[in-house]
Amino acid sequence: MLAILKDKSLFRRQCLINGQWCDADDKSVLAVTNPANEKQLGTVPKCGAAETRRAIEAASAAFPAWRALTPLQRGAYLRDWEQAIRDNLEDLAKILTLEEGKPLAEAKGEILQGASYFPWFAEECRRVCGDVTPSFRPGTQGLTRHEPVGVAAAITPWNFPFSMLPRKTAPALAAGCTIVIKPAGRTPYSALALAELGVRVGIPAGVINVLTGTASEIGGEIAANPAVRKVSFTGSTEVGKQLAADCAPTLKRMSLELGGNAPFLVFDDADLKAALDLAMACKFRNAGQTCICANRFLVQEGIHERFVEGLTARIKALRVGDGLDPATDMGPLINARAVERVDGLVRDAETRGARLLAGGHRHALGGNFYEPTLIAGLKRDMQIFQGEIFGPVAAVMPFASEEEAVALANDTSYGLASYVCTRDLARTWRLFGALQYGMVGVNDATLASAETPFGGVKYSGLGREGSSEGLLEYMETHYLLLGGL
Ligand code: ADP
Fold it and tell me: What's the pTM?
């Protein structure tokens, strides 16, 4: 790792508690490997409950001074942090690709997308105005204002090791909260590099703390500690539900961004080339390991054959390899277990009658590489219809009518992202109402932005990230009643 970084001090291998870089109390460590070749990149501290408690105490101690700053002052730190990210883009992208596997160009895109949350929330926090409400009784006046909730915690997954952090940290800090961060154990170095830049731009000690280590111990302390007033989690539905149960006794506010099972609807009237471009971007980004990836391609009968033909050719043209190689379109999966799981889904589909039109097997490169795959004849009883694939497998089924498409699309317990390719405006409006999803992308799939609310319904979670709503997730409304006027 070190050899390819211009600024070697970005490769932090310790945790940040109260402004100090530190090891686990017992000096134990976890190994971090490169998914492209399984070589060890380094280690990080294996912290547990005791270190987490100290980080929460540090965040509590730092809270009064941080909240007392004006929004403009807090925003200035966030802007400096954004600039530091931009100044170190190349190194940050290499760290991200090395630990996660995605192609370097995607890594850069992720980092810049993440950075965009800092200026947005730096501005947005200046506009959090309260209300002076019309009086409900003579001689009284009601007023409200929004206050930071206190110490926040962020628990993030491995598939977007960088951008998930600004999404949570920028609104938390902008609101006046301090934060304790637990990145995924497989991809901790992006988070630690981001924290290093935060320290460099002078964010006061205790305002940001980053812990690596045993998920259940760190998560357990975050959940049980009454000083933590808000938890923002991105990860699997299973762990999200467990975390919500763990947080219930201390009644924390929660944002949960969980799994998805995105339908991708293509209607006969769609622009075929645009639909194919979108399908590729939406399915194979990060080797299909994103929660908003198209999971089920539902294609109307009149365009189905042409769509499948076009998709087959494009999938076969994808170049698989190490993310550091500029020629690579798609990197490896995160680990051997992921390859095993994805292969199991493909085999399940095959035994239930699906046809393999491209890929469908472990890649000749070996290790964690899997072939970009296209499956025709998707059916409801297949596992790939029912749950998140989280891999480079596109599965297609035909439909006849709009009603049938909607019924198929909604036939899942998830409700994060959905996509529609059509040129019919009235249909677009009908589908916006009919699709039970937090987000609907019509002829576009780049849903995540600082300006717009990202989040799901049903088992895809609670709360929204980005937009003005993303800031209020870290604030609570205080009401003042003035009597005797
Ligand atoms: P993924 O499979 O995408 O990594 P997970 O839900 O397993 O999704 O993990 C998301 C994040 O939640 C990771 O940082 C992981 O370490 C953390 N995590 C896993 N188990 C727990 C738990 N019991 N409590 C809190 N966090 C957890």
Answer: 0.97
